[in-house]
Amino acid sequence: MIISASRRTDIPAFYSQWFMDCIHRGSCTVKNPYNPNQIREISLLPEDVEAIVFWTRYPSPLLQYLDELDCGGYHFIFLFTITGYPQWLEAHSPELSQSIKIFKALSNKIGAQKVIWRYDPIVFSRELDFDFHINNFRAIASELHHHTQRVIVSIMEPYSSVIKRITKHLIDRNIVLNPFADYNAEQMEQFFSSLSSIAHERGMHIQSCCSELSLYGISNGACIDQQLLSNIFNIQLNVPRDAHQRKNCLCTKSVDIGAYNSCRFGCMYCYASR
Prior knowledge:
The chain contains nine helices and nine strands. The protein has 274 residues and is α/β, with parallel strands linked by helices.
């Protein structure tokens, strides 16, 4: 079993103590997000957990427990989001310089192959145009050179709840989002070719998450990737694709132990928070 911790919230940032209490207990309980009365107990015993995938933008509270997890026989990697967006989009995210510092410290501790950079979602607006993203991506990639081997990008999904929230929040700021569909194929190819070149020049494999970017030279990949986990930890995994994710998602099946509407970062584009 692969544990996802978590697509629904930032467990390392806000619930590290809860997570470790569950590790010590050997299990956790998870509510069905669509039926709160349905509660499932998930084993967290080392013999039942083949790998843990942490999703986070601030793993610092968990760092003190990594040696314990490692000694306990747990395999784990981090999907670490760093975007460098303005506060009107990411109200409570750590400062960019702080995120980069923590990323480097984590990478130095557990190895560059176990810390994957997420530059996602890519949000377009008058302020966040192609030039912004290319320069921003280059600056972050330069800082993370030698500290990661992979970067994941995606286009913001236009969920109706997300668009409604962003529109309401930004109307007084005179900020208007530019939908992905507003750009033609040539523009998008130039843009993503630039990101791809920047990543490759810094030794990073670049892939997309759910966004169909193969037309622009970036292949779709799995965030929870059993082949990657097998290679890193020298283990044999035979887990099917997760059929409960979005249409273009290639992730390996996992058990998510987080809860929706519990992350306190307040990112405007997040589908997991109201």
